[in-house]
Amino acid sequence: MRRGWFIPIVAALGFSFLYAPIISLVVFSFNENRLVTVWSGFSLKWYGELFSDPQMLGAAWLSLQIAAISASIALVLGTLAAIALVRFRRFRGRTLFSGMVSAPLVMPDVITGLSLLLLFVAMESVLGWPQGRGMLTIVIAHSTFCTAYVCVVVQSRLSDFDRSLEEAAMDLGASPLRTFFDITLPIIAPALVSGWLLGFTLSLDDLVIASFVSGPGSSTLPMVIFSKVRLGVSPDVNALATIIIGIVSLGVLTATIIQLRNRPRSSRA
Amino acid sequence: MAKKPQLAIDTRPWRDPANNKPFVRIRNVTKKFGDVAAVNDVSLDIYRSELFCLLGGSGSGKSTLLRMLAGFETPTSGTIEIDGQDMTDVAPYNRPVNMMFQSYALFPHMTVEQNVAYGLKRDHLPRAEIAARVSELLTLVKLQDYGKRKPHQLSGGQRQRVALARALAKRPKLLLLDEPLGALDKKLREETQFELVKIQEQLGVTFIVVTHDQEEAMTLATRIGVMNQGEIAMIGEPADIYEFPNSRFVAGFIGSVNMVEGIVTEDEPDHIRIRSGELGCDIYVGHGVDCAPDQLLWWAIRPEKMHLSRERPEVGHDANVTSGVVEEIAYLGDISVYQIALDSGKRIRVSQTNASRGNPDAITWEERVFVTWGDSSGSVLTS
């Protein structure tokens, strides 16, 4: 019976360590007081203030656009890379390619950001493109590191893919392209969805790389929040953070549900 | 080799190759993976409506040969002809051949009906015709009430039947089956074997089955091709393979066998005599064999072709009888298998039918017994 107490207590401690800061942030976003640490009553006024702040809303919209575009580009590139790595088992430079694809996972953001900045500056002076820095450069930068994440997710799904399914489709008269769209794509779809969502979240979340490669007038949401907080924590940032947490949780939940719904189907069949 | 009566030649085209055109011709096919030859110079003729079994252990090249017929592998050299057309370099989706996969390879995101209809949709048949054909096939495999289910909602045996229906949907001229019953348990496998033969006879489709299970091959096949290390060791009807193996490998691979070494002492057109130190007696073979005096060769005999007795039996030619001590008895119900230690130390197995119930006079452990066999019960093997 003593053991019955021990585990819940440890679990509670662990979870509070992880989630207490987030919960306090959510709670204080409904605080009426201007001082973040003093509770003086329930209010939604910071949400109202947030939605009447054009700078915040503009940054949020920009971030969402960048996240969606980068995740989509990364989805296509990462899937292609994963297919190459899993399907063409042995080709010249495979190890190098495999290492290069996953390098952005471990590369410090500062270095990625700095090197991309230097590249964009050099390209602009030599090629004249991309002109200046802004949304385009952020999208390019985010696509590169999101590609690595998508590739890893899709690769793991593809490597336990039963090749005889594709052979069966071809045997029944489907061309290789047809087979890819009829068989391969539907079966790896859950991995594609979670890869896209992962890329979307990472892009939405990124501060360091975006700071390096963004230009005037293209501040993403994390950049705006960070600059605001440096001038002192204001409660409308809490409100914004609460909304972001809501969106991210929803995304993760959706991805998990999709994965769970598909797992028994593929592993048992 | 003893003369066999030639009956029912019309249903066995392989016995008269001069007047019958083979349906599948495999000519000198070799497949190399790197330096390793998985299939080595295989030539094989298979006739229309045959149920041909490729039998071999793992790594014998049987699956590679099947995959070359399906088009998933291209031969390094040699040609494959199906129904008179060269198929060596034709892509799998352009061949009049369908395959049933060992893993069944049912599409997990489609229902049973969609799985069966997939090949028909690729042929752009009218919708009504597809629906009719699908229900006809599901009736054939007795799954008419399961059309709306997904593969993961079916049992192993049901999945196997969906895979069969899907492979038959396009009415292929040739159906390839890779270990079709491998994933089923023993009881279900025995039932399904007969069902498979029934469907094959009903539709008249040519089947090529790959299996490692000799019992399965014997039950299903019109002919068996035994494969060993990428080569065909023997092609023949099940009874030929069992009763008249052409090599020590085939004799040992199918069923159980007693094999001894011996030296030819008499080589006449109508009989030969072999002296075997291992057996402790002479072997008199009642037919001519292509061999030379003093040649070293092997003689193989199945356990059920030998007879046990307590008294020394009357035998002619002063041969074909030896004696030993019963060492082990395995009672299997229908038969008992006796392991006899001969005086040379060689152990042989003899099986006897348990014809009477609870025989108190049966031969038992530690008894000295005589073992005899007929003039043509064993096979003389020179390789």
Automatic annotation (TrEMBL), chain A:
The keyword Transmembrane applies. SUPFAM superfamilies: MetI-like (SSF161098). InterPro entries: Bact_Polyamine_Transport (IPR051789), MetI-like (IPR000515), MetI-like_sf (IPR035906). Its main location: membrane. Residues 60-256 form the ABC transmembrane type-1 domain. The chain crosses the membrane at residues 7-30, 59-85, 97-123, 135-158, 179-198, 237-258. GO terms for cellular component: plasma membrane. The keyword Metal-binding does not apply. GO terms for biological process: transmembrane transport. CDD domains: TM_PBP2. Coiled coil: none annotated. It is found in: Cell membrane. It comes from the Bacteria. Keywords: Cell membrane, Membrane, Transmembrane, Transmembrane helix, Transport. It holds the Pfam family BPD_transp_1. It is a multi-pass membrane protein. Belongs to the binding-protein-dependent transport system permease family. CysTW subfamily. PANTHER family: PUTRESCINE TRANSPORT SYSTEM PERMEASE PROTEIN POTI (PTHR43848). This is ABC transporter permease subunit. It comes from Devosia oryzisoli. The lineage of its organism: Bacteria, Pseudomonadati, Pseudomonadota, Alphaproteobacteria, Hyphomicrobiales.
Automatic annotation (TrEMBL), chain B:
It comes from the Bacteria. GO terms for molecular function: ABC-type polyamine transporter activity; ATP binding; ATP hydrolysis activity. The keyword Cell inner membrane applies. Pfam families: ABC_tran (PF00005), TOBE_2 (PF08402). The keyword Cell membrane applies. Residues 24-254 form the ABC transporter domain. NCBIfam families: potA. The complex is composed of two ATP-binding proteins (PotA), two transmembrane proteins (PotB and PotC) and a solute-binding protein (PotD). Belongs to the ABC transporter superfamily. Spermidine/putrescine importer (TC 3.A.1.11.1) family. This is Spermidine/putrescine import ATP-binding protein PotA. It comes from Devosia oryzisoli. The lineage of its organism: Bacteria, Pseudomonadati, Pseudomonadota, Alphaproteobacteria, Hyphomicrobiales.
